[in-house]
Amino acid sequence: MEIRKTKPGELKAIIKIYEDARLFMRENGNPGQWENGYPAPELLKKDIKGGKSYLCVDADKIVGTFFFDQGTEPTYAVIYDGKWLNNNPYGVIHRIAVAEHNKGVATFCMEWCLNKCRNLRIDTHRDNIPMQKLLNKNGFSYCGIIRLQNQDERLAFQKSID
After folding, report:
1. By mean pLDDT, which of 26-30, 42-46, 119-123 is the weakest?
2. Which of 15, 120, 128, 149 is the least crowded, having the fewest Cβ atoms under 10 Å away?
């Protein structure tokens, strides 16, 4: 497997992965996350243009996608009912999704991000139990609750090897 930046012509492929991920979430007790077609194609185009959309490719097949950026995330400025592990510069992973029946892809993507930035933050919906298990399995610590711009809450996690 390898990680590379998403190309504009690959938008359709990642939209399909997100469609499948929404179905998976609904089937696994998480109907409230990524509602109404989130992430919208316009957001994904912005991510691609900004160089922050990545693909996981295995034998020339797209098996996963995610947003990764090194810098600050405005919604992480305030954390409730807990605290971040540290206030060092960090990388952010958002919108990680895996093509159907591809085990190990999300872990591979997280490890790639950790190799780029040894301090990572990520958040997920309270009902996204599979993601919470994945984060725990990969050594992320639960840190508290953050609020999105629309005030929805998300569980915040961090992994630091500084």
Report:
1. 26-30
2. 149
Tokens of 22: 């929404």
Question: Roughly what angle, to the nearest 10 degrees, separates helices 41-49 and 11-27?
Answer: 130
Residue count of the chain: 162
Buried/exposed code over 97-119 (b: 16+ C-beta within 10 A; e: otherwise): bbbeebeebbebbbebbbeebeb
Query: What values do phi and psi take at 17, rounded to 5?
Result: -60, -45
The pTM for the full model equals 0.92
pLDDT in tens, 33-56: 888 888 999 999 999 999 999 999
The CA dihedral of 162, 4, 34, 40, to the nearest 10 degrees, is: 130
